[in-house]
Amino acid sequence: MSIQQIISPDKIESELMKIWEGLAKENKMRASLFNLIIFNRYSERTDYIRNIVQKVIEKFPCRILFISEDPAADHPYLKTAVSVAMPQNSESSIACDNIDIGVGGAFLERVPYVLLPHLLPDLPVTLLWAEDPCKAHPLFQPLSKLAGRIIFDSESADSLLAFSKTVLELREKTQIDIADLNWARTEGWRDLIAFVFDTPERLTELQHLKQLTLTYNARPTEFFCHLKIQSMYLLSWLSDRLNWTCKTANQKLQFQFESFSASIESTEWEKLGPGTIIGARFETKKDSLVDCARIKDRYHYVEIQISSPEKCDLPYQFVLGQTATGQSLVKEICMKGTSDHYIAMLRQLQLLDRNQLC
Amino acid sequence: MQSDPHPLAETGRTTRNIDPCILVIFGATGDLTGRKLAPALYNLGREGLLPPNFACVGFARRKKSHEQFRQELKADIDSYSRVKPIEEKFWKNFSDHIFYHRSEFDQDEGYESLAQTLKQLDTKFSTRGNRVFYLSVQPKYFPIIIEKLRKHGLLYDPHTVEDRWSRVIIEKPFGHDVASAAQLQKNISQYLDESQIYRIDHYLGKETVQNLLVFRFANSIFESLWNYKHIDHVQITVAEDIGIGSRGHFFEEEGLLRDIVQNHMMQLLSLVAMEPPVNLSAAAIRDEKVKVLESIRPFSKADFEQSIVRGQYGPGFINGEPVVGYRQEKDVSPQSNIETFVALHLFIDNWRWAGIPFYLRGGKRLPKRATEIAITFKDAPGVLFQQNGQRNPPNVLAMRIQPDEGIAMRINCKVPGPSSPIQPVKMDFRYGSYFGQTPPEAYERLIWECILGDSTLFARSDEVAHSWQILTPVLDYWAAHPPKDFPNYASGKWGPKQADEMIARDGRSWRIL
Fold it and tell me: Which ranges constitute the DSSP H helices of B190-300?
């Protein structure tokens, strides 16, 4: 990134132009596919969010409008700064405008007025709302009205049940496209399960389960603390897609379905992202077993072992895709629409999580 | 909500519903495998796009061990992959799925043992009997390989076998002329259903070629202008600055018309001229492409001299460096009459394109490497904004296929200031500056599509047949009338002067690329 220039809001475009003129000899190209508005409150997560935005521009150049609110500010303020964001890969000639808006106190209401003139016309607007949408915030409505797509991260939600209600209501009311980074983080596992149970015979096995066990990485970091969510999403998705009915659920994350039990267990793996699903084990009433588990030194590989009392297949591996930070957001950015499976999964979650397990 | 055939799959949101399979590469020690296929497979695997239950078997005549074969592929990937360096951890696992099988192409025992090997690999990798056979061999081996595959139960009849599939990818050229293409088709269709044949034309795997359909049919402003009322003419250029390199033997038999025009240029032509398909299925798109080929006006006797120009490069300069002429290239006859340049002027006799000329040119040792489709629009009516009696240059929409992929539009614009001269300016969209990612190689996309069972990006038998029907009379005429002026253009020039004269007769000129 070029050196950030703190300037008054009316100088944003002219100052950006000056930076670009300075970069002309470096052969950098100004590119933008869409406007990406990010809202967050200053916290330990701010750097993490900046990091994932950096990943986005490496794949999809965009104009970044990064809003950071300081909830602890003792006097109102509004600061704007501009810079040029560049992919870390130094070979790339592409670079993007980066507009930072720092705000505190009552000046929050001025943010939309500062932001509006700097949206690039004719290009889509995506809002990454990095805070809990269940908590009313004066900026949510004005910013979401500008956006064609809102990306949440249920990791930031204090209550998963409240989160799912809020998102469903928002979708119903506005029909706006919605994505969720935690949902995107489970994509590899959803693909894997769909792949493993791709034949009608295999699929039938899922209706005759005895026990389903999901395991996630419980290693917390300062950025992630709601670590069960991805596993809950996966279980809820399966329940919805396969019409399983959950009878009871307890705080130990043990679930009783009509004809089988499920549990969500934890373990701690260094280096692997917190909350990430590590394994899924499907045991059937006929003692067949489908055991899918990440390989410890090659995290984005899952070894799949299928066995029954009669035979034991040789294990094989499934590539989950890159698990590097930011890749979920990158994927969601290029998607259109809202996943039907996601919306149905959130509805199902209201049943699974009725005792507020997360 | 439950409309997807598989309850766990969501249409349009995943690229991973792909059947397990074994890919067998015939000609596995050849240049194409090393330069294109191995890097394509590696990158597909690295990005998680290959099925998890996957194995690759190299089939060739040279003796070598599995390990030797793996090491050779690794070295090729290191040299030619678009992503470097090789990811050691990934390679370690991936290479365990790669095997080598030595046999002659016509030996029954070789196929017998291949069948056994594949059966064992099915058990080991749960590949369920699904097969892709990639024939990266000389065309003369296509029929025998396919016959042997069928004889040894390696090709399944798709009408009777439902629980597994077999597909065959065939490299170009598919035939040498209309008769040989028909014969080849007859030979292989004894053993293969058309749905199992994937005739590869790597141009169709290029992102920008695929974007042609999106550009035309996802942008309403262009489609309404895409016809004889608004378009003056269309130019398609496939230019290469390289010579024939080590392909002397091949080129002496094929020539440029067969090597580039019959396949790549005809594909570009049909994509740019086709009607909107009824849907995006392979059959619907290919039906429309065939209609374009069917509508091309056959060349008359006069056209062979007036509307078709052939050329051969002589010595010259490329980027200021001296280069030899075609007849001095390795494995080329010093009296060779093979063409290294072709320019064509043709018409598509249908409602949309009535009377609109299409100019095609392709050649080796031209000043630069450039593949482009340029649509030149008719002049604006009236006499407004004329300058000294001169009309303003027409609008041109140029779609660059390679390199520097993108789309540019030439429009006229007022130069600031009181005297108001009009200046053409260019609105330029460049893939490279808009999308910060390396596009996948054509072969990655095509292998993936074949495993997926989508034949949209492959040529159908009737496309190939029609293309040969148009061009075989040209080949016959050329054979009967050998050129008297070869070599007729210097390396580093835009072809022979006859090509310029051909287009100039219509009051037009070739675009400067």
Answer: 207-217, 220-223, 248-256, 266-273, 282-295
Backbone angles phi, psi at A299, to 5 degrees: -60, -35
Measured between beta carbons, which residues in chain B are less than 8 angstroms from residue A321? 47-48
Query: Within a domain: residue B2?
Result: no
Residue B249 is a catalytic residue: no
ipTM: 0.80
Burial class (CB in 10 A: 0-12, 13-18, 19+), B420: exposed
Q: How many domains does chain A have?
A: 2
The residue among A119, A147, A175 that closes a domain is: A147
Domain span at residue B114?
21-171
Between A and B, how many CB-CB pairs are < 8 A? 88
A153 touches A176 (CB < 8 A) = no
Same domain? A139 vs A51? yes
CB pair distance less than 8 Å for A314 and B45: no
Is the pLDDT at A211 greater than 80? The verdict is yes
In a domain, A158, yes or no: no
pLDDT digits (tens, 9 = 90+) for B315-327: 999 888 899 999 9
- Tell me, what CATH number does A222's domain have? 3.30.360
pLDDT digits (tens, 9 = 90+) for B103-119: 999 999 999 999 999 99
- How many domains, chain B? 2
Which chain B positions have a beta carbon within 8 Å of A322's beta carbon?
48
Question: Does B249 reach chain A within 8 Å, measured CB to CB?
Answer: no
